[in-house]
TrEMBL record:
Keyword Magnesium in annotation: yes
Pfam families associated with the record: RraA-like (PF03737)
Gene that this sequence comes from: proA1
Name of the featured protein: Putative 4-hydroxy-4-methyl-2-oxoglutarate aldolase
Species per Swiss-Prot/TrEMBL record: Actinoalloteichus hoggarensis
Subunit composition and interactions: Homotrimer.
Residues reported to bind substrate: 84-87, 106
Group of enzyme by EC: lyase
Catalytic activity: 4-hydroxy-4-methyl-2-oxoglutarate = 2 pyruvate; oxaloacetate + H(+) = pyruvate + CO2
Molecular-function annotations in GO: 4-hydroxy-4-methyl-2-oxoglutarate aldolase activity; metal ion binding; oxaloacetate decarboxylase activity
Family, per entry: Belongs to the class II aldolase/RraA-like family.
Function of the protein: Catalyzes the aldol cleavage of 4-hydroxy-4-methyl-2-oxoglutarate (HMG) into 2 molecules of pyruvate. Also contains a secondary oxaloacetate (OAA) decarboxylase activity due to the common pyruvate enolate transition state formed following C-C bond cleavage in the retro-aldol and decarboxylation reactions.
């Protein structure tokens, strides 16, 4: 897409461009897609849980809405998977927009087959605890970035960006301008001639 008008919302903007538009802030450190080509975009539904414990994720499924992104502060723990195939089957049935974990996941092959975009800090076969405690709906941190309920979450092969809801219109405006400038530079690069 060459026209900035092709990008009406953060949903259609690359994570790298959103980060540039936010002066290189807003990217969740160390959070990666679990399968190539996974993308997500939608408002954040936040959960803060004890490291390695997924009771709060199951509770979140009682109220999360279609299209929302389940975004979880799991303390960055890499020793216990907060989700696997069965949890993601539930997420798919509820038509949520995806899952972002500051923690670990498992069953990567099955997650890719299910097609629900999952981004996480790590992969481990070890299962979770299910005792709590947890908090739903508050401000959390994921990959060093604060996330409020309703902030816009965008993920692609480069990682995850968090766009604060109150800054969304301005970030989209700046990102559109950056894309227009990149298109001009791309066209100029195609006109370069090698020197002998």
């Amino acid at each position: 897409m060459n026209s900035i008008n092709a990008y009406p919302s953060p949903a259609d903007l690359p994570v790298a461009t959103l980060s540039d538009a936010m002066e290189r802030f807003g990217v969740a450190d160390g959070i990666r897609p679990l399968w190539p080509g996974a993308t997500l975009s939608g408002p954040a539904f936040t959960v803060w849980t004890r490291p390695g414990d997924n009771k709060g994720l199951h509770a979140a499924f009682e109220t999360i809405r279609r299209g929302e992104i389940l975004i979880v502060n799991g303390g960055g723990d890499e020793t216990r998977a907060l989700i696997g195939e069965l949890v993601v089957q539930k997420a798919r049935a509820l038509e949520i927009g995806g899952i972002v974990l500051d923690g670990a996941a498992r069953d990567v092959t099955e997650l890719a087959q299910l097609g629900v975009p999952v981004f996480a800090r790590a992969v481990t076969p070890a299962g979770p605890w299910k005792t709590g405690p947890y908090r739903i709906g508050g401000t959390i941190a994921v990959g060093g970035v604060p996330v409020h309920p309703g902030d816009w979450v965008v993920g692609d092969d480069d990682g995850v960006a968090i766009v604060p809801e109150e800054q969304r219109a301005e970030v989209v405006r700046i990102a559109r301008e950056l894309i227009e400038g990149e298109a001009r530079r791309r066209a100029a690069n195609q006109g370069l001639v090698p020197r002998d």
